Amino acid sequence: NAGVMQNPRHLVRRRGQEARLRCSPMKGHSHVYWYRQLPEEGLKFMVYLQKENIIDESGMPKERFSAEFPKEGPSILRIQQVVRGDSAAYFCASSRKGQRSNGTQYFGPGTRLLVL
Amino acid sequence: EDKVVQSPLSLVVHEGDTVTLNCSYEVTNFRSLLWYKQEKKAPTFLFMLTSSGIEKKSGRLSSILDKKELFSILNITATQTGDSAIYLCAVGETSGSRLTFGEGTQLTVNP
Fold first, then answer.
1. Fewest C-beta in 10 Å: which of A51, A71, A85, B65?
2. Does B3 touch chain A (CB under 8 A)?
3. B34 touching A, CB under 8 A?
4. Which of A43, A106, A110 is the closest to B101 by Cβ?
């Protein structure tokens, strides 16, 4: 049973470009979470999605960031017009049940975004 | 604001030593506390704790939760170099979906 898959593992972008990060949850998991880990900081929640629905986006920056989890295909975290401060590791996690049902979150290997 | 504090932030020990990592929390509606091990890649799930006083064990690792004093400890006995990693503590609430993470404890086990 493959774990949570993320790609790309490393992404380099210049300021102003767009970054698209993909996450395929574990088989049988329909809940996806995105976290960001800035250098020297802990993981910070960004958004929680179920298939075709954003459930909680309270951790997402108000501008330039968006997330989706379509019926078919991976979840996408999109960052438009990247700035240097977006450089971080972005982790995706998935669970079989929602957090309210004590669904354990399993993490992917992360995408390390570097903005030049 | 919810808060998770881990200590120590960094720890260096020799193989064979026993270590205790600490995690204290302040959350509005506590549901669960989780421990993860982060090496160079994905945080790997270790334990989920929901009830006070019940120890969870997996090999040389064990963990316990105290909901009255709002903390948890992670014990690693007979440490090995492969235990070197960042150990993350996270807390989930009843009211939402997010996990709130501490900053982690960087454990280094020297041969």
1. A71
2. no
3. yes
4. A43
> For all residues of chain B together, what is the average pLDDT?
93
- CA B32, B33, B37, B38 torsion: positive or negative? positive
pLDDT digits (tens, 9 = 90+) for A25-75: 999 898 999 999 988 788 999 999 998 899 999 999 989 999 999 988 999
Residue B32 has pLDDT above 60, yes or no: yes
If you average pLDDT over residues B74-81, what whole number do you get? 97
Distance CA A63, CA A81 (A): 10
Measured between CB atoms, does A25 come within 8 Å of chain B? Answer: no
Judged by CB atoms closer than 8 Å, whether chains meet at B88 and A42 is answered as yes
3-state secondary structure of A40: coil
Give the pair of three-digit tokens for residue B101.
């993470």
Q: Closest partner residue to B31 among A44, A56, A102, by Cβ?
A: A102
